[in-house]
Amino acid sequence: MEHERDESSGAPLLIPHGSVIVADWHRCPDSKEYFSKIFQKKRRKTFGLLEAPAMPPQIHVDTVRYKVFLAGKSGVGKTALAARLGGSDIPTMHYETTGIETTAVFWPVKLKDNGQVLFFKFHFWDCGENALRRFDHLLPSCKEKMDAVLFLFCFTDHGSFEDLSNQISRVSHPSHRIVKLVVGTKFDLFMHTDVTEREIRTFQETSGLPVFRVGGDVNAGLGEVAPLLNALAEHLWHQDCVTASCAPLSSQV
């Protein structure tokens, strides 16, 4: 279902899944050569700030880079989500992030209109809530030149769901042209959920923001992270095309 808002206001413009990029391309045979470059010994490879997937010389792939801020109450799982999306081990115990932690995640995508393959480099920024309250300069640093924000809540903490509106108003402004997605963590603990599906549907209808669900153990597959990373890539690329009036790729990479 497509939800549209007024572009002039900067409000969300949500696009149908698979309208910009090839949906579930990670399952297609022609994607294997690209996805193999983000794996090492059957595990997702951890990339440093200056590292990138190494493709054969005869295959040229452009890389587009985006800064993504993770927002949410303390304990909702921001650090765990960054680890999950990056293929790293998820911390077994919760600890408050003392400052800003960054995670670089590469994700290959095939554009639907021309079949071009791009590597999306997501630079996830995670900052602890206590640190944000103590040091006034941290939130502006996280928001500076950000392209997207993931608003997190925990399915076992109804207060974190109620805090979403506060997080959205604090981090973003209606005039800001940034991608906004909502992520519910610990969805695997459905027996203990404090947030109902009716509440989720109502929130999506009133806010115009999609809600993604994550939870469970991380394994070698991509099925648990592909929906969120694909949606992030799709909305960011569409936003760039709209902002640049579909300018040539050379001006966007």
Automatic annotation (TrEMBL):
| GO terms under biological process | cell projection organization; exocytosis; protein transport
Localization in the cell: Cytoplasm, Cytoskeleton, Cilium basal body
Q: What's the chief localization of this chain?
A: cytoplasm
The answer to whether the entry has keyword GTP-binding is yes
InterPro entries for the chain: P-loop_NTPase, RSG1, Small_GTPase
Domain of life, source organism: Eukaryota
- According to its UniProt record, what is one Pfam family this protein matches? Ras
User: Do the record's keywords include Protein transport?
Assistant: yes
Query: What is a GO molecular function of this protein?
Result: GTP binding
Print the keywords alphabetically.
Cell projection, Cilium, Cilium biogenesis/degradation, Cytoplasm, Cytoskeleton, Exocytosis, GTP-binding, Nucleotide-binding, Protein transport, Transport
Family from the record:
Belongs to the small GTPase superfamily. Rab family.
Q: What is this protein called?
A: Ciliogenesis and planar polarity effector 2
Lineage, please? Answer: Eukaryota, Metazoa, Chordata, Craniata, Vertebrata
